[in-house]
Amino acid sequence: MGTELLPSFIIEHYEVREWKHACAILKNDFPNEWEDLIEMLADFRLMKSWITVGGGRKSKVSAWIDSYLYTKGWVEKDFSTKVVVDESEMITPTHKIDCFKNRVALEIEWNNKDPFFDRDLNNFRLLFDLRAVSVGIIITRCDELQDIFKSLGRGSSYGASTTHMAKLIPRVEGGSGGGCPILVLGIKDKLYIEDC
């Protein structure tokens, strides 16, 4: 498995899974994006204040990751896709990618309903088949964080039907990402900081 290509800090602080040599492809074919990813993961901390305050349109976790990567040239990306067969044209809509740079797509699923994983994986599959994406990355939470959420009185806000590793892994292992190489990172409780 290529996860040994990751620094020990990442292995210790994230639950890491990869499919179809995603780490090797990132490190060798997309070294700048790999470096951006490693730096962001090393700098990230899960703040107590981000959990105790209710969300809104975008979680504080997603906003932090987005902002970090946007300063390094990543962008939110919407693709315009269609299939043309003879004279017949079919629009094939995709969903916006949270963070995109040089054929590397990254999605953050912090506290959404778990069908968002299906949307992300289908997006990766389609965009990979269209040669627009070479690697898909999903960052979510480890199941072990539920104990912290409960201790803060936020357990019901982060319920079983929301996005977390136990909901994601079976989908990827079941082939929902198609041929797209995928790297999945679950935020562990070791990254939690009591800042308030």
Main sheet record? 6 strands, mixed
Examine the secondary-structure arrangement and name the CATH architecture. 3-Layer(aba) Sandwich
The low-confidence runs, each spanning 5 or more residues with pLDDT under 50, are none
Alpha-beta content class: alpha/beta
**Assembly state (oligomeric):** single chain
Report the total helices: 8
- In the residues, how many domains can be counted? 1
- Outline, from the CA principal axes? globular
**Main CATH class:** Alpha Beta
Number of strands: 10
- Average pLDDT confidence is 91
Strand order of the largest sheet: 1-9-8-7-6-3
Order of helices and strands: HEHHEHHEEEEEHEHHEE
CATH fold assignment: Restriction Endonuclease
Question: What's the layout of helices and strands?
Answer:
Layout: H1 8-13, E1 14-19, H2 22-29, H3 31-43, E2 46-47, H4 48-52, H5 60-70, E3 75-77, E4 82-85, E5 88-91, E6 97-101, E7 104-108, H6 115-129, E8 135-141, H7 146-151, H8 165-173, E9 182-187, E10 192-193
Parallel strand pairs: 2-10, 7-8, 8-9
Antiparallel strand pairs: 1-9, 3-6, 4-5, 6-7
Helix pairs in contact: 2-3
Key terms for this structure?
196 residues; alpha/beta; Restriction Endonuclease; 6-stranded mixed beta sheet; two-stranded parallel sheet
